[in-house]
Structure formats: C-alpha cells, structure tokens
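To close the section, here is one more complete example, presented without commentary so you can practise reading it yourself. The ligand is flavin-adenine dinucleotide.
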Amino acid sequence: MTVSSADTPADRSVEHARPAIVWFRDDLRIADHPALHAALELGQPIVAVYVLDEQSSGVRPLGGAARWWLHQSLRSLAASIEALGARLTLRRGAAGPIIASIAQETHASAVFWNRRYGLAERTLDTAIKSDLRASGVDARSFAGSLLFEPWTIQTGQGGSYSVFTPFWRACTAGAPPRAPHPEPRSISGWEGVLDADSFSSDDLDTWGLEPSSPDWAGGLRAAWAPGEASAHALLDAFLAESLPRYGSDRDQPAQNATSRLSPHLRWGEISPYQVWSATQEAQRGLTGPALASAARFLTEVGWREFAYHVLFNAPDLATRNLRSAFDAFPWPPLDREALTAWQQGRTGFALVDAGMRELWRTGSMHNRVRMVTASFLIKNMLVDWRVGERWFWDTLVDADAASNPFGWQWVAGSGADAAPYFRIFNPDLQAAKFDPHQQYIRENIPEFGTDAYPAPLVDLGETRRAALAAYERVKNPS
Ligand code: FAD
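Output:
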C-alpha cells in the first residue's frame, strides 16, 4: 500500500489548522445554523464573517428600519460567537472579492453558507462558489432559511405553484422538516492560527446602520429586542400563552395574539425548523379549536414559504405584475400630498391611520391592518401598489424580498393566488369588525375623536366606484 503525501500525519495537521469560513447572511444565529454546524464538524478553526454588500449588482439596498435591525442583530450575533470562543469578522463591499480575499488571507480550506433565494443573490453565490472551487476551496451551500427549498416543490407537470393550497399540500405531503441542529457548545476561532493584526474586522459602529440625526429609532427600540435569545423568548411566550387562541384572535390587532416573529425570521435569528419543531411539541395535548389554531399558525408559516417559492420563480416580484393584464391598469398621476397623508397616518380613516402610525413608530404593523392600509392606498387612492411596497420596504423591520412584494401583489389582485381586485376593504367596516372597542385605534392615534383628527381624505363610495371602473381596463384591455 502506498501512502499519498497528503495522508501523512504532518499534512493532516496542517489541513486541520486551515480554517473554515462560515459566511453569515440572512441567518444571524448560532443554533440550527446548517453551515456553521457542517463547518464545526470539520474540526477546523472557524472564521465567522458578515459582509455588508451594498455594491453587487441587483441586490436591493436595505430600507432604513431594516438597517437599524441589522445593526442590533449583528451586535448580538458577535456577542454570542465571542461567548463560544470565536469572533465575528465584519467587512463592507462587494461580497465576491471580499470572500475570495478572506479565503486567500486565511488559507481557508472551506467556505460554507446558507442559501438565499433572490435572483441577484443566487447569481452572486453561484459565481462565488465556482470561483472558490476553481481555486481548490470546498465551497458549499445549505438549506437554513426555508423548510422546503423552492425548486423541490413541483406540480404534477413539473412546474411551480401559483396557488397556495395545493402548494402547501405538496409541502406537507412529503417528509416532515428535519429536526433542528443543536446549539454548538464552543467554536474554536482562528486566533493563534492567523495574524490578528493583518486580519482585521470593521467596527460595526462605523457602518452607519443606525439613524443619528435625527434618531428616529426610539419607537423601534421600545418595541423590539433583536437577537437570537429574544426570538426564542418570543416563540416560547407565544406557544405558552397565545397558540390555542391564535385561530380566533389572530385578526384582531389589539389582542396581541400573533407571534411577532416575522423580523426574527427575516434576519434568521430563529429558523423555521425551530419554529416548526417547537410548535409540533407545543400542540401535543391540544384538542379541538386549540389544535386547529396550531395548524393555522403553521399554515401562516407556510405562506412565508409560498412567498419565497413565488419569488424564486418570479425574481422581479417587486416590480412586475405577476398577472400581466394589470399592466393595463390606468394609474392616475401620483398625488404626492395624499401619499404623504397616507404615509403619516393622516387620511382620516382611523384603522388606516392607526396602522400607518404603528408602522412609523415600531417598524411593524399587524397583518390585518397591512391588508387594510394597502387596499386603501391601491383602491381608494388609486396609487400603484409598487409605491406602497417601497414605503413598506423602507419602514418595516421584517421587510423581505419575498413576503413584502408578495403581500402587495396579493392585495392589488395582480399576484399569485391573490385577492380579487374587486374585493375592496371598507376601512370603517374593518375597524368595526376587527377593533370593535377602538383599542388599537386609540393606542396609535392619541387625538382620535377630537377636533385635531383629520377629516376623511376621500369619499369611500366614490373612490370605490372609480377603482372598479379603472379595473374594467384590466378585464377588457382596449
Ligand atoms: P404570525 O401570525 O405569528 O405568523 C407567523 C409567521 O408566519 C410570521 O412571522 C411570518 O414569517 C409568517 N407569515 C404570516 N403571515 C404571512 C403572510 N401573509 N405572508 C408571508 N408570511 C407570513 N411579512 C414579512 O415577514 N415581511 C414583509 O415584508 C411583509 N410584508 C407584507 C406586506 C403586506 C401588504 C401584507 C398584506 C403582508 C405582509 N407580510 C410580510 C405578511 C404578514 O403581515 C407578516 O408576516 C405578519 O404580520 C407578521 O406578524 P407575526 O410574526 O406576528 O405573524
């Protein structure tokens, strides 16, 4: 038997000293992180990296509220990684050259990451993977952010789904999602292997992710605690207190009956596998409506999967009507003053204004109210859904490239499995039904019911008729 030179003990120890890079992106956690888990199994030192990429072509720049969240989340991730014995390296710039140069500087033998699903990100990741492999680095990607990889769920004809129910049936008919990976007990860092002086990290505070003048993030700080630990605390509290009543109360914004996990899922501080598995555990012993509530909650998590499935198959979801008939919609010229009134919550329609003010103050809005405010902008103000999508993109802490444009196209009627255009929410009836004691409205509009509250911006009946008339052009393009 011949022994190749790479198999000698000396060479093997050199190989072991070479680090593995774990590239963090939309997965700012250490537990159930498949790329980190696989890298740790190699038994090599870990170089943990985050790249703020505002340069690569096609990658949509983050909105203001998202940047605020990212800052807090990175600080939290860095602390968790340090507590386990390693360090988070921060770099800013185009990800391709940065990852290549870190791999070179550190003599890394492997670069691992969890996948992203937008086209620009996929294109970038594919190029980076093939360049790394060409230079002999073991580059691998993992499934960490979705329960069902979009391309694995196919119709009988091998196509993608455009209707939720059969999509979700196909997802749940197969093998159940895997169990979450445990949290690592330690992470051996690269210190001692590399020269710390020549291998530097940016200082997070120099990235300017947090607003300074003016500092508008006070309400966000009061409403949220970004980071992995808070995500799990929210999930635990939701499962213990609200899961059994989720089905009956989830549409009532004053009831606090939903999980509030969306920004934590957006930034990957918690994985959908962890949510799935903990919900399965919590629903044991539930019966009747409480058990149905748990199923309903998992179905909502399924809508997130569906939004990504749609994004994967329609990468220009944020800019193009999925139903091309909507290209004929005769949007009137944009009334900027009216748009500002909507953005600032001064339309004179209480549920709309409460929602828009909640959004501005906290970076979030209850799902029912997102539907009502979006419907009002599109159908009572006749503003193109893309204008609203951009505002939400800038102001939501959970803004993601799939759920946000998906939600807007759903309300507009132009999207996948969307509400029909002619279903126009009446904001006053919605308020009476879903906020009957005006608790949510009063929480968000201090001057509600006084002379200081604005008069209605539009006539609901008139604008509804105008919207339906405009819709005729979609149905019967000339
Ligand atoms: P829960 O009711 O507790 O649901 C659990 C999880 O399921 C959520 O955290 C979320 O990840 C997922 N989920 C629930 N409903 C939906 C849905 N309709 N579509 C996709 N995922 C869902 N959600 C985002 O995460 N990011 C967005 O940018 C976003 N933009 C939206 C824009 C519009 C116009 C509309 C109508 C909806 C949008 N949604 C978006 C979906 C939904 O409003 C939020 O996910 C939900 O309000 C988050 O609250 P929660 O975590 O308490 O949800």
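Once you have examined the tokens, check your reading against these statements. The first helix runs from residue 9 to 17. The chain has three domains: 16-145, 146-180+227-313, 324-475.
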